[in-house]
Design a protein that fits this description.
By secondary structure, the chain is an alpha/beta fold. It has 2 domains: 43 residues; 113 residues, no CATH class. It is built from 8 helices and 5 strands.
Length: 170
């Protein structure tokens, strides 16, 4: 029914009307589409971050960076050069300077350490560095087994990460 109405409106709307609508229509709006009897029913048809193939794709990209086969990845996409977030890096180095060269990051939702790998070149000469990622359990298990190195560690909860190392920055 909805598609029929949309089709009919498209046929009778002049090109100028369509152009005006496109210019002023809301963008980046979350919307509900489909006829689902419940949230659970809709979720069964949706993919989420917990999907196993997402972990495998991210892991493959991060391992390439870790092993020196790629210089940078973000959201599992490999890049030819590191795209630094200079404001973030300035903040991290500022926190380290305020703490006499000690930087202890609690990276909540930090995937498999993408931001650590992005910035490790600038952080490697600090007096002490810990980069503790809190993530979904399947990311943590993978991170602990295959990604963790030196200052990079993975935890199942904020409480567990804080018990290991009190952060200087979140």
């Amino acid at each position: 029914m909805k598609d029929t109405i949309k089709k009919a409106l498209k046929e009778i709307t002049p090109p100028l009307g369509t152009k005006i609508y496109r210019k002023f229509r809301p963008r980046n709006v979350l919307k509900w589409a489909g006829n689902y009897p419940s949230w659970e029913a809709a979720m069964r048809e949706a993919d989420g971050y917990e999907k196993p193939s997402i972990l495998e794709t991210v892991k493959a990209a991060v391992l390439k960076v870790k092993n020196g086969q790629a210089v940078y990845e973000r959201d599992s996409v490999i890049y030819g050069e590191i795209q630094y977030s200079w404001p973030l890096l300035a903040c991290l180095l500022g926190v380290a300077a305020e703490n006499k060269g000690h930087l202890h990051v609690l990276d909540f939702g930090g995937s498999l350490g993408s931001t650590y790998f992005q910035n490790r070149r600038f952080l490697s000469n600090l007096e002490s560095l810990s980069w503790n990622v809190v993530e979904q359990s399947h990311f943590v298990a993978c991170g602990q087994q295959e990604i963790a190195e030196g200052p990079l560690r993975f935890f199942y909860s904020v409480e567990e990460a804080i018990a290991f190392q009190r952060p200087t920055v979140l």
